[in-house]
Amino acid sequence: MASLDLDTPWLYSSIESFDGSLNIHIEEVNSADSLDSVDNSKSIVNYSRNIPKPPPLPAKICQKTNNQRWLADSCNVPKETKDLWDRLFKEGFAADVHIITENDSVIPAHYIVLCVASPVLKNFLEQSKPRNGIRYIKIPGLPYNAIYVFIRFLYSSCYDEGEMEKFVLHLLVLSHSYSVPSLKKVCAHLLEQHWLMTENVIDVLQLAKKCDVPRLSLSCVRMIVKDFKTISSTEGWKVMKRANPSLEQELLESVVEVDSRKQERLKKIEEKRVYLQLDEAMEALLHICKEGCRTIGPCDKVLKESQISCSFPACKGIETLVRHFSSCKMRVPGGCTQCKRMWQLLELHSRMCSEPDFCKVPLCRHFKEKMQQQSKKDEAKWKLLVSKVITAKNALGPFKLRRSGFS
Ligand SMILES: [Zn+2]
Ligand SMILES: [Zn+2]
Ligand SMILES: [Zn+2]
Fold first, then answer.
1. What is the pTM of this model?
2. DSSP state for residue 49 in the 8-state scheme
3. Pathway listed for it (predicted)?
4. Least distant ligand from the CA of 339
5. Would you give the end-to-end CA distance of the chain in angstroms?
6. Ligand 2 centre and the CA of 277: distance in Å?
7. In whole angstroms, what is the distance from residue 253 CA to residue 125 CA?
8. Ligand lying nearest the CA atom of residue 352
9. pLDDT tens for residues 78-111?
């Protein structure tokens, strides 16, 4: 794959100074001078200030009905027709415009085609006076081949892929400056799909912003955020940092934002997992205390380590905890970690239990009574916990899918 010519001074300077328009010179010669007089810079009028702002893309102004859009999309130009227009351009038959590029190379073209293809070129051509039936316009500062590809596209929408790849950034700028949305679309698509790389993404982003291609800008930002470490050490980044510190700031903020969103998401997933585990623990506790577990309970039977637990995934864990709790010598709040955990689970149960008078879970009534004396702060904490557990459980819906056991 041919690499993009990123070292051309034009590209860097255009990124730094490109204000959405290219310099264009209209050759105004009244006498029947030879082409050589075109070189005379005094006779060249710079109309860059008069370049009108490109109109919005067709998508914004055309409110086609579905049917009309279908008709437009289904219009397939036969190859013969494209070839005909391509030949007309390449052979320059009866050309009445000379486009002068760097080193005074000339690309012959047709007034009427250029006027129809680009409103900006039309504006320039209308202002230029023909000399011996030929109008002259100069497009300086860009490689001849880039302008050749550009004008060819205006005739037939045809392009050579190698040439397109080589000049895609130039062509993106040309398409914007001369208001050729179809070419802009092709450049943006090819860049986005095939030619966006860590080495050029910063340059592409800057041009995409200046040429008003939001989708391409977004793709660039995504790529930068995804591979920030590599891209922030490229030459392109260093140049951008110097020339456009506000963009650097914007990109750094995007990286931080995406990172914190990711952290936030992970935190929420983890929180939800904990609340679901607590809900499972509550179910298992009720199941063990009410009916005793067929697999590992009732409490007086020896725990069989190897056996798979019953349909309550937290059953085995809770059973172990209950057994420890009943035999632990430090069975006080704030005692050993396991006992502390058991106390908390028992209290949580009591707070979620609606039938303390008939409940078989130990200490259910005790905690209900203790609640009356609790501080408002503790009370609020417990209420929040209870509501989070209920929300996590309800979020599962009627078809519960338990993945993790309580342990
Ligand atoms: Zn069980
Ligand atoms: Zn203990
Ligand atoms: Zn209870």
1. 0.59
2. G
3. Protein modification; protein ubiquitination
4. 2
5. 56
6. 21
7. 45
8. 3
9. 899 999 999 999 999 999 999 999 889 999 999 9
Average pLDDT rounded to a whole number, residues 288-298: 68
337 C-alpha to ligand 2 centroid (Å): 7
Distance 362 CA to ligand 3 centre (A): 8
Ligand in closest contact with the CA of 322: 2
Task: Give the ligand whose atoms come closest to the C-alpha of residue 367.
Answer: 3
Q: How far is the CA of 312 from the centre of ligand 1 (A)?
A: 6
Q: How many residues does the chain have?
A: 407
Q: Map out the domains of the chain as residue ranges.
A: 9-54+77-189, 269-395
CB 62 within 8 A of CB 142: no
**Residue 7 pLDDT exceeds 60:** no
Ligand with an atom nearest the CA of residue 326: 2
User: What mean pLDDT do residues 161-167 have?
Assistant: 96
228-257: per-residue pLDDT in tens? 999 999 999 999 999 999 999 999 999 999
Model confidence at 70: pLDDT above 50: no
The CA 195 to ligand 1 mean position distance, Å, reads: 59
Does domain 269-395 bear CATH number 2.40.30.110? no
User: Which ligand places an atom closest to the C-alpha of 348?
Assistant: 3
Query: Which CATH number applies to 9-54+77-189?
Result: 3.30.710.10
**Nearest ligand for residue 317 CA:** 1
Residues 223 and 201 sit within 8 Å (Cβ to Cβ): yes
Decide if 50 contacts 116 (C-beta within 8 A): no
Residue 346 or 1, more confident = 346
Residues 80-117: b if buried by 16+ CB within 10 A, e if exposed = eeeeebbebbeebeebbbbbbbeeeebbbbbbebbbeb
| Each residue's pLDDT tens digit, 352-400 | 998 888 888 888 988 888 888 888 888 899 999 999 999 988 888 766 6
CA of 317 to the centre of ligand 2 (A): 14
